[in-house]
Design brief:
Layout lengths: L6 E4 L9 E2 L3 E7 L2 E11 L5 E8 L7 E2 L3 E2 L2 E8 L3 E12 L11 E9 L3 E4 L11
Antiparallel strand pairs: 1-3, 2-4, 3-4, 4-8, 5-6, 5-7, 5-9, 9-10, 10-11
């Protein structure tokens, strides 16, 4: 049976020099057997820009949850069910110049190690947000 415990982390805004700008923020939370990314105020300094966010689990493209592209600023909620075990969950957002399908930047906004079924979330700094071959 999945845990109903909840845990959350809040990430700092995107990397220095990225065009995703404050007050953009991201929270990763586990409820039951689902990890949810709540992305608030995702904004860009690109005039007329749009934003799109992704919840990415274990480096597996089949476990992506992708939002629609929206005019900035925008709010998104993305969720993915998780199997038992340890997982790497991260969320990042891309910003696009007006009338372009090429992202300007796509900084990681939140990253965590998620352990199921206990539902724990351990925040990881962005520079430790990668998969190992172990």
């Amino acid at each position: 049976m999945a845990s109903s415990a909840a845990a959350a982390i809040v990430a700092a805004p995107g990397l220095a020099g990225a065009t995703i700008v404050p007050p953009s923020s991201a929270t990763l939370q586990v409820v039951g057997d689902t990890v949810t990314a709540t992305l608030s105020g995702i904004s860009t300094d690109l005039p007329g820009g749009t934003v799109q966010c992704t919840l990415f689990v274990d480096g597996d493209p089949r476990q992506n949850t992708l939002s629609a592209r929206e005019p900035a600023p925008a709010n998104f909620t993305l969720a993915r069910p998780l199997a038992a075990g340890e997982h790497l969950a991260l969320t990042y957002c891309a910003d696009f110049p007006a009338d372009s399908d090429t992202p300007s930047s796509y900084p990681t906004l939140a990253c965590a190690k998620v352990t199921m079924p206990v539902g724990t979330v351990e925040a990881l700094p962005n520079d430790q947000c990668f998969l190992t071959n172990s």
